[in-house]
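Standup notes
- DV: blocked on the single-chain target, sequence here:
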Amino acid sequence: MRITDEKSPTTKPRAYKKLAWAVGLLMGTTFGAQAAVDPLRVEGNQILAGGKVQAFGGVSLYWHQQPSAAGFYNEETVVRLKNDMNAKVIRAAIGVNPDFNTENALASNFSGSMAALDRVVQAAVKHDMYVIIDFHTHHADEHEQLAHDFFREASSKYGHLDNVIYEVWNEPIFQDWDGAWGTTIKPYAERVISTIRANDPDNLVVVGTRTYSQRVDEASRNQINDPNVAYTLHFYAGTHSDELRGFAQTALNNGAALFATEWGTVDASGNGGVDEGNTRVWIDWLNARGISHANWSASNLPETSAMWDGGGNYTHSGQLVRELVEMTNGDIEPSCDAARVSGIGRIQAEDSCPQQGVRTEDTSDTGGGLNVGWLDAGDWMSYQVDLPAGDYTINYRVASENGGGRLQIEQGGGTPSFGQIDVPSTNGWQNWQTISHDITLPTSGLQSIAIAVVEGGWNLNWFEIVPDGTSSSSSSSSSSSNSSSSSSSSSSSSGGSACNGVNVYPNWTTKDWSGGPVTHNETGDQMVFQDELYVAKWFTSTIPGSDQSWSHIGSCTGGSSSSSSSSSSSSSSSSSSSSSSSSSSSSSSSTSSSGGVPTEVKLEAESYTTSADSTPGNEGNGPTRGDTDVETVSDIGGGNNVGWTESGEWLEYSLTLNGSSNYRIDARVASELGGGMFTVEVDGGSVGNAFVIGNTGGWQSWDTLNTDAGFLTAGSHTVRVQIQAGQFNLNWLKFVPDSGSSSSSSSSSSSSSSSSSSGSFGFVSQNGQLSVENGTLVNRNGAPTQLRGLSSHGLQWFSNYMNVDALTTFRDSWGLNLIRAAMYTWEGGYIADPSVENRVHELIALAIELDIYVLVDWHILVDHDPNIHKAEAKDFFNRLAQQYAGVPNVIYEIANEPSNGGVWGDPTFTGYNVNWDQHIKPYAEEVISVIRQHDTQVPIIVGTGSWSQDVHHAAANPLQGNDIMYAIHFYACDHGSWLRDRARDAVNSGLALFSTEWGTTEASGNGTVCTNETNDWLDFFADNNISWANWNVSDKNESSALFVGGTPSTPPDGGEWADFRLTESGRYVRDRLRSGR
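- DV (later): unblocked, structure below
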């Protein structure tokens, strides 16, 4: 989402600065001229320089009190950084009270520290750089008075300068205190900012965040009330990866501005090897989002993060930083990917190289990914293509809030121009429309073409090169995901009676949880989008027809109902009306044969339109086009195959289907080694299951695998083969309609790609509504049913792991049939931030899509007594029970772990005396009564005392009613046979138990992994049909987490997480799930 319109920036009044300038002169400040830098101002989630988004690259000095580092606090260092890499930012890390060289620190030598700071500020101003004044400590709250004194003097002396940035707390730690932001860090920052604002009302202030300035997501949910505050993001490439970028993206999505005031190329210790690959990913990520950054450190200390060695030469890290800072500040262009050569078909806008003046952002258009934006006149994007001379239609996927834009397609370098086209208003930066014009390319072969911005103010997602006379799936001018040119988004349908009176997207039908604005549709609610009628299958706020949450009913203009049921194909709902055999010329222009008979289509592997290959040159003996490896094939029919495949490579094809139908994809493959895997995407969306290639007996011993692609519409499509794991050859793909004849070789298809794949696919469909009979969980047929799965960690922290790719791997590879949604009440959870509920709905929707069960957990922990938030619990479960009544996937856990004890963070409170008879049972009776008003069948699990261990108390005085179960929690290193004996007695008494949480470790979630005791527990559960969910799906720094720190939230290793990414506990849990017991 575009937060601000940089075309009409707000400008800062200069009166205050002039007055402060005069005051500065009277105080003896020696700055020679007004700083030649733009003021930095926060607008939404971005920091603007002079009203424009711009990422600045720079460097941080080392702790100032360290003797060898102190020698760099001078103009000579600033000049070298300016001249060598065009650094725009210098950071003065003023050590407060560290445990080394304390005699020189701020707390011991205030005047000497201020003198060191002054030298850096003076030099930065003289050489037109920004300077970060950094209160460099992990424990600023313990030195608050010193912070006031420090920033009072700094703001008084430098507050008149636009160069100055204040960093009020470098790296708060508080790793084990989730509430630290709201209770300690934010209040401290607010008080110190007040001191700064007394002298400097408007320069940028940057505030550190929890866990060494990583948990910017927490700060973004509870922001500081000051118009010019950003939040500190620190990373070290050898340690921090996708998860931290996920926290940062969450913060941006919540409207928080970020500044990476410290980052390193190595691990978080400041040492270790230089991780060049992840460093480049990080800097590209920051630059694309306009986030400025300063590298650690401009020093010659004996650690690998230092910029220089003892002789003043650039280290490995320094050389890389120099290149990336230069690139950030516009002095050099990033090197182009020589393997990226495109041809006929679709080209993603962000794949340009080189380019000038462009940035990227996440797109909400069909297919996701990135779009290019912030385009001004004079900007351009260049692409390498391999095309024959001839006539072409060029389709551009554009969005513009105001219109008035214009682009030119030209030969790389600017001449000749092939044509220009106006970009209209689409009424939004993410409302997408396709525009087209015809051009003639005069030359053939490998060449550079460019898209130049004649007039700016528009975004570009992709463009498409289509030979003259060939229709395109995207040639319709109406958008498949928010088109502003379509009147259907604001007016009622003009079609048949089926759509009369039905809301038209985006006029939602249902209010949000609080009774506030209308925000979504619920189960059974209908909606019209682009003259097509849809019905919501569950809670949804997505575009009708764009995902699995919608079923397509039919056309408002009288077309028959589609069987696709919200097909995942992104070829646009505008073409769905063409499924009628009487489609008129007013339908989507996908193809003239959209009402034709579906026929089989074969794509030869070597006929790709564009591709990406990881090695230069063709390693085979076939025709060379780009770097993709092609060789002569010995399969029936001859020709060529693609080979030497490796993970990350891909092939794209243009596909034209004569008719709409459900299709099967056949793939002709060979491998001598096995272990290969690839997926097929159609128009940016994955279809069918992954193809898993075994050992076929040789590189030219061919086998045919298949998968069901679902419903695909007639017309043109872009097909991508995405290779997750290599070591296989590909001869061809076939798209076979249901009504057509199957491939002659389909009998040899591999079961590994069958739609009824391994794991628990279809588990809910097979078992239906669960219930409790005679103290055990049973399916719809009364058969005992054990659920085995995983629990999320707190959704306010680690919801990034609750995504479709991760859950699909858990289901298909690990054998999971249950996911638990742990919605904390306190610790930044639902009570403080009710929007956490949205993540519960998202996880329920994923569970429904994947046909697994989902346990909705009201996760009380530090609040001990469920009655503290009983009113909120009743409201929450009342709404969910009403919404999901009759949905068999859903199970409710109404109180995670009732317990005795005090409230964390309140030492004056002596504790609750929480027990079953007086507290837990009465609470449960009230909440269960609320649920049963709407859903008489859903299983309900009730926590028991002492962190859900006191099942014997519940057995002695059970609740009355149907389908009630009781939570039993264990952590293997602390809870042994004595607790199992208690559980066994409860089972023998007829109590239905469910282990909604258990761990392999100590009860703290940390410590040793006790596999023998865990085996005893899980064997006991298997023998007694007790279902379970393991704690926890996260990469938190504790031994009960599944993943080691920095593990990507989506499976990166051929659809899996390799063993080295799993903790000891994670590997055990995976293997236990796979055992089926």
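- Follow-up: Residues 337-467 form a domain with the Jelly Rolls fold (CATH 2.60.120.260).
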